[in-house]
Amino acid sequence: MIREFVQDVSAKSATLAVAVLANDPVTAEGAVSWLSACQELTAVHWTHRQSADVLAVFATEVTGDTLTRVERVQRDQQGCPLPVVMVANELPEHHLLRAIDLGLVSFLYRQDSGFDEIRRAVAEAAEGPEPGRRFQQALIHQIKTVRDSVLLPHGINVAGLSPREIKVLRLLADGWSTRHIAARLSYSERTVKSIVHNVVTRLNLRNRTHAVVYALRAGVL
Length: 221
Hints:
Blueprint: H1 2-13, E1 16-22, H2 25-36, E2 41-45, E3 54-61, H3 64-75, E4 84-90, H4 93-101, E5 104-109, H5 115-127, H6 134-151, H7 163-173, H8 178-185, H9 189-202, H10 208-218
Parallel strand pairs: 1-2, 1-3, 3-4, 4-5
Helix pairs in contact: 7-9, 7-10, 8-9
C-alpha cells in the first residue's frame, strides 16, 4: 500500500507542467483538455506567477499581440524564461527574431501537426532537443548570432527598425503630419520624409501607412 502511494506520488512529480496560451478560448480549452489527458503532462491556462516547465502557444497567426503576451509570461518568470513551443499556421519573418528572443525552441505548423507531434515537441523542449530537431536549434543559434553581431551593434531591433525610425512611425500612427513630426523631433521635414522613405524601401513596403501597420504588427509601437 505504501509502495503504491510512493509510486503514485513519484509519477505525478515526474509530469511536465505545460502553461497554455491561445488566441481564442475554444482553442485554449481544447489544448488544455487534450494535453492534460497525456499521462506525462499536466496542462493549465497560464496565470500570473504560475509555475511551469514549458509554455505552449497556439495561434492562427503569430502576431505582435501574441508575442507581447509571451513577453508578459517570460517577464513573470523572474530571470528563468520558459522554453516556448508555438503551434500556428504562420510565423511572419518580421516576428521570427523576437519570437526566438522570447524563448522559442520549436515551431509546428498547425495544419500539419496533431497532438502527438505537439506532445513530443513539448517533451523535447523541456528535456533538450532530440537529434532530429538539432538542426532547428542550430538555425535558431545562427539567427541569434546575426541579431547580436549585425542588428544590435547598429541600433536596429528585431523588427529591423532603428529607434529614430520608431519615433517617427509612432507619431505617424498618432496622426501627426510631417511638419509637426519635424517640429516635435527637431528634424527638418526633409529628414522625416527621408526616414520614412528609407523604411518603406528597405522593408519592401508599399507606403507610409503600410510602414505604420508593419511596426504595429511587429509590436514596436
